[in-house]
Amino acid sequence: MCDDISIQKNRYLDQILAERRSHRIFRSDFCSEDEIRRVLHAGLLAPFAAAAVGTSQDYFRRFFVMRRGSESMKAAFPLVLQQVRRMAADLEAGMHNDPALRAKAGAFAERLSIFSKKGIVPGIGSAPYYIVVAERRGYPPVELQSLAHCLENMWLKATALDLGFQLVSVTSQMSSDPAFCAILGIPPGEWELMGCAVGYPADELSPAIRPPVEEVTRWLD
Ligand SMILES: Cc1cc2nc3c(=O)[nH]c(=O)nc-3n(C[C@H](O)[C@H](O)[C@H](O)COP(=O)(O)O)c2cc1C
Q1: Of 72, 68, 53, nearest in space to 128 by CA
Q2: DSSP labels for 98-142?
Q3: How far apart are CA 138 and CA 106, in angstroms?
Q4: Which of 28, 47, 80, 170 lies 20 to 30 Å from 122, alpha-carbon distance?
Q5: Is residue 47 part of a domain?
């Protein structure tokens, strides 16, 4: 049924979907904690792998909010940078005798190398908030997929609130790091992690450009 309410709902949803972009430059001022809570609430509404974590007594999804300049962010930043440098060195060594890997991962390795040299981790310290989301490991191991749903919900809500949002996917490499997990207060290895940066965007970005649906779709008999 296509009544007025349905048309309105779809208009707003389509607008938010098209406006959702990766913001990588943020204003320095903090958005309110209430706005952050609304973003986290959207994450809680995302689907989760009930069959994989269903028997756990303890809730399986957690959020950790770090403010720029806080003790937690000051402690977390060098640990993540160290991980970026480790990944850069490992990848460089891996590509040394593997032309196929170099062809595939060269651009990514270049980015890691730039971040390593500059001593930056995009999204940590460059935005007012760095948020780590944790999902308890279950069976089958589908935590990262579950986290992707959670982060997408948060991203869409941030967009609806006119906030900028950037994924900080290196966060997933920190799930077994004892010092990083100690900052969060979780045991290393029991939770998968993903991260994002949130704040007011410095620039307005144009809506996402994607190919037409028909160009990338086959209707099978
Ligand atoms: C699995 C995954 C990991 C990503 N990791 C990062 C990241 O660490 N940093 C970043 O700035 N963007 C990251 N992105 C964002 C993509 O680069 C971005 O979505 C893509 O370039 C399309 O741009 P848009 O988000 O503005 O539409 C990631 C996206 C996905 C799906």
Answers
A1: 68
A2: -HHHHHHHHHHHHHHHHHHHHT--TTSSSSSEEEEEEEE--SS--
A3: 33
A4: 47
A5: yes
Task: Please tell me what DSSP assigns to residue 169.
Answer: G
What pLDDT score was predicted for residue 105? 96
* Ligand 1-lining residues (CB < 6 angstroms): 21-22, 24, 122, 166-169, 208
Residue 173: closest CA among 105, 119, 112: 112
pTM of the model as a whole? 0.96
Our CA angle for 174, 175, 181, nearest 5°, is 85
Specify the pLDDT at position 5: 95
d(CA 98, CA 219): 38
pLDDT at 56 over 90: no
What total of structural domains would you count in the chain? 2
Q: Of the residues 16, 21, 22, 111, which should be mutated to test ligand 1's pocket, given the most ligand atoms within 8 Å of the CB?
A: 22
Nearest-CA residue for ligand 1 atom 17 is 22
Find the 3 Cα to ligand 1 centroid distance in Å: 36
What confidence category does residue 1 fall into, taking pLDDT thresholds of 50, 70 and 90? low
Q: In this structure, are 66 and 146 located in the same domain?
A: yes
Q: Which domain holds residue 99?
A: 77-118
In a domain, 48, yes or no: yes
